[in-house]
Amino acid sequence: MRTVDLVIIGGGSAGLSAAVGARKQGVEDILVLERSPYLGGILRQCIHNGFGVHKYKEDLTGVEFAKRIADEARALNITCMCETFALSISPEKVVTAMNPSSGLFTIQARAIILAMGCRERSRGALMIPGSRCAGVITAGTAQRYLNLEGYLPGKRIVILGSGDIGLIMARQFTVEGAKVERVVEIMPYSSGLARNISQCIEDFDIPISYSSTVTQIKGHGRVSSVVVSKVDEKRRPIPGTEFEIPCDTLLISAGLIPENELSKSAGIELSPVTKGAVVDDYLMTSLPGVFSCGNVLHVHDLVDHVSAEGTQAGANAARYLRGEVETSETVPVESGFGVNGAVPQKVRRAGTGKVDFMFRPRDKFPACRICVDVDGVCAATYHRPVLTPGEMCSFSVDRSVLAKAKEKIAVRVEV
In whole angstroms, what is the distance from residue 13 CA to residue 259 CA? Predict the structure, then answer.
């Protein structure tokens, strides 16, 4: 069994940023495990721009961002094993993995960073009735077909869900000559970034139906049409509102789920809200020495934020290896009104500096403020002109404010 100071599972933007962050903090023995043949993760199939504005102060494509962060890791001589699949993590931080050259092997890690990313919700997860025909695919799969495999998966498209990948693919399908018949969103607002609604939907005159969903898929062999219905405030289809849209492809862009099977195998506590690990303000999970960052922790909207969180996880793992991570008692963080899963979920009482929080709003809130309650009393406020579910909200709180909590900390939206 090989012993490694720091094992990072995932070679995307979070994992590579974590590796670079740890190396810059003095960790020499780092091993990155990536299951695909190439570093960069999902960014390799993202040919559109909008990446790197915060991190590199440049407007890059996803491919360019992936190459740049991979080049940083290579320049620091960080060892990366591609085509390597991590099978399990034990509570003792033993990683079992396999690849074509080495077969099955184990690694004893002193610290681990989880950066496995996320997966898309499929038709099965949404339980859409109808025939089991070809032409029903997720937005990320369509993106791979078009940008990496080089072929158009359909010519008449209906997109279910207004997540960012679906919105971007609506534009790209149109540019490639396909016809996007309609975007159908079950919520009364988009779940994507405002800029993507503007640049991908409005600029190309693509119709979008809010408070609607696909209630049936029709077709023999391949999709021939879908039935769309309006929904009520409880997201239940309203009888009599159905209409049919002829199409040959249904693209599903209905959200992402953190890829946490490895976390479960290690017995790490998961959040029922974010579907990621429960972490403290060091991004450390319930298993000491195991950290989590990026989309496997909670689904982000910008890769720049994923990269920044990875850098933070790498730096914190370095502190853990040096024995500098506080082991004081933690205070739980609750998600109050308007907050859909605040991260971190625990804050240590001891320490200095600021604690960074992130959450996704539950609804659209104009002219509001974020309140941080300490034992039921508002201790800090942050004014925001608008909060939307499509954009992550982030803020920092002085630890001295949070250290006063005896029972709990709560994050809420006040309108």
Answer: 15
Q: What is the pLDDT of residues 303-317, one digit of tens each?
A: 999 999 999 999 999
| Residue whose structure tokens are 């799969």 | 141
Our CA angle for 415, 193, 70, nearest 5°, is 125
At residue 1, the pLDDT reads 86
Residue in 303, 298, 296 with CA at minimum distance from that of residue 49: 303
Q: Which residues contact 64 (CB under 8 A, 6 or more apart)?
A: 51, 52
Give me 211's structure tokens. 């408070």
Where along the chain do its domains lie?
1-119+256-327, 122-254, 328-415
Task: State the sign of the Cα–Cα–Cα–Cα dihedral 304, 305, 306, 307.
Answer: positive
CA-closest candidate to residue 62, choices 183, 176, 159, 148: 148
Q: What is the pLDDT of residue 193?
A: 87
Q: Count CB neighbours of 37 within 10 A.
A: 7
The DSSP annotation for 281-316 comes to TT-B-SSTTEEE-GGGTS--S-HHHHHHHHHHHHHH
CA 344 to chain centre: 15
DSSP letter (8 states) at residue 154: -
pLDDT given for residue 245 in this prediction: 98
CA angle 147, 185, 237 (to 5 degrees): 135
pLDDT of 133 higher than 90: yes
Identify the CA nearest to 114 among candidates 132, 100, 99, 93.
93
Q: CA dist 315 to 12, 25, 327, Å?
A: 17, 6, 17
CATH class of 1-119+256-327: alpha beta
CATH architecture observed for domain 122-254: 3-Layer(bba) Sandwich (3.50)
pLDDT band at residue 204, thresholds of 50, 70 and 90?
A: very high
Residues 73-113: pLDDT tens digits?
A: 999 999 999 999 999 999 999 999 999 999 999 999 999 99
Domains 1-119+256-327 and 328-415 share a fold: no
- Tell whether pTM > 0.70: yes
Domain 328-415 sits in CATH 1.10.10? no
Rounded mean pLDDT of the chain?
95
Residues facing 7 on adjacent strands: 31, 112
